[in-house]
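I trust your eye. Have a critical look at both lines of this record:
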Amino acid sequence: METQEITTAPAIIPRIGDKAPNFTSKTTKGDITLHDYAKDKWIVLFSHPADFTPVCTTEMSGFALRKDEFTAFNTELVGLSIDSIHAHLGWVNNVKEKTGVYFDFPIIADIDMKVSKLYGMLQPNESETAAVRAVFFIDPEKKIRLVMYYPLNVGRNMDEILRALEALQTSDKYDVAMPLDWKKGDKVIIPPPKNLDEMNQRLNDDTCERTDFYLCKKEL
C-alpha cells in the first residue's frame, strides 16, 4: 500500500519591517496592550518554553540580571510562555527564594496561545504546546526590527542580544551599517553610493577607511 506523507503547514511568522501584531494580555505586572505599552521605548519581546525548567531559568535570570543594560538602551523587556499567571508567579517567587534573582519585568501568561500564534512562536515540528525561544526587537514605532529563533534545547546569548540592540539603535542614529562582529567603539560602514557622482566622490574621499567605493568605514 502506498503511504502518504503528512506535512505540517509552516508557522506564520511576523517579518522584519512588519508592524508588530498588537495584543492585550495578562502578565505578572498586570494587563498590557502592546501598542500602548512602553511609549517612545524599544521592546524586546521574548518567549520561553515553560516555567520551572532549567534552561528557561538560566535565560530568564540572564535577562533579569542585565535588565539595567536594557534600560540604558531605552528598552523594556516582556517575557512569555504558555503557562498560567499562577505558574508564572510561583516560578518568579521560587527563583527569587533559591537564587536571589528577581524577574522584575512582565511575563505574559499566554495560556490560550494567542500571542504565541500571532508571533509564530509555536512551531509544530519542534513542539505544539511550548513556545520556541523567540526574540523580537520592536522599535518605538512598534515596528519589528530583528527576529531571533532558538530551539527548545539551546539557550540564547545575552551578549548577542544586547549587541544587536545597540547596533540597531546606533544604525538608526547615524544612518550607517554595522560590519561583522561590530561592537561599540568599532568602525561602522558608510552606506554605498547611489549614483556615479557619489561613487567618484567616494573614490576621492580620504576621510574614511576605503577598501573600494562600495566598502568604506569610519569612526563615529
Summary: The radius of gyration is 21 Å. Residues 158-174 form the longest helix (17 residues). Residues 1-8 have pLDDT under 50 and may be disordered.
